[in-house]
Write the structure tokens for this entry.
Amino acid sequence: MSGLDSNPFVDPVDINPFQDASITQATSGASKNVEDYNPFSATEMGTYSETTIPISAASSQPAILPTSVEQSAQASAATGQANLIKQQEELEKKAAELDRKEKELQNRSPGRALNTGNKENNWPPLPKIFPVKPCFYQDFDEEIPDEYRRICKRMYYLWMFHSATLFLNVLACLAYFTADSQYGVDFGLSILWFILFTPVSFICWYRPVYKAFRSDSSFSFFFFFFVFFFQVAVYIIQTVGIPKWGNSGWISSISMIGKNLAVAVVMMVVAGFFTVNAVLAVILLKMVHSKYRNTGASFTKAQQEFSTGVMTNRTVQTAAASAASSAVFGSNQGN
């Protein structure tokens, strides 16, 4: 009945639930742990990174290219340097060559220069003690452009081969004459052809083509074509070898097989040389014509060059003045 005797209206004992010993111990430990907790400590961040890299240290590291890129860059630089050295050597060689030619021109005697400015004639190459001096100046590297130099040299080699063939023709006709005395006329004519055709061919078709390539002269081209067509016809006649025409061709050589085989063989060799001359002449004529078409030459230009050359020629001017003065003097005497 004691419970019923208590006064329900009396304030109960004021009890603080947080004053319990277990709760107080728990809250004090939690607050201590919260105060000691450092979210940026190495222990708490171990899950994400083991070490912290300073910004200054990371930014100060140099950038390193891969080894293959460095090697390719070095190889390119070495190649470029080698090309520059090679170009420099070529330029030095060209400069040395120009200096050499300039010194040669300066050392030439001006008193011996003939119609070529300060250039001394150098062809034919004769000894200094020889009484006859060179008559022409010839220098392929100096006077002929690069695109025409090869064909011009080939024309010069054809002329040399032509001259050697004419000399061998003299020997073959001499053997022909010794085997049969009735062919003495061939031997005499062969000497005449050698003495006549060697210089005439040089002046009439080789020098015109040389001048044409040197100065791009339309008149020289037309003169060369006109004369060289006849030269090709002469080569064909010499190859055929008509008896008593002074040529050791195929007809003459074959006719000697039954009489003297050794002489026939010698004559056949010369006939082969004449055949090679004819073939080379046709080939080179076509090559020169193709070069001529690329130069822009024409018959009108040839006429202009001819008229200009005639009007400016001193010999022609002197002859015209003499003729005019003679006509005036004759008319005065008539009056």
Notes: Residues 42-51, 55-59, 108-116 have pLDDT under 50 and may be disordered.
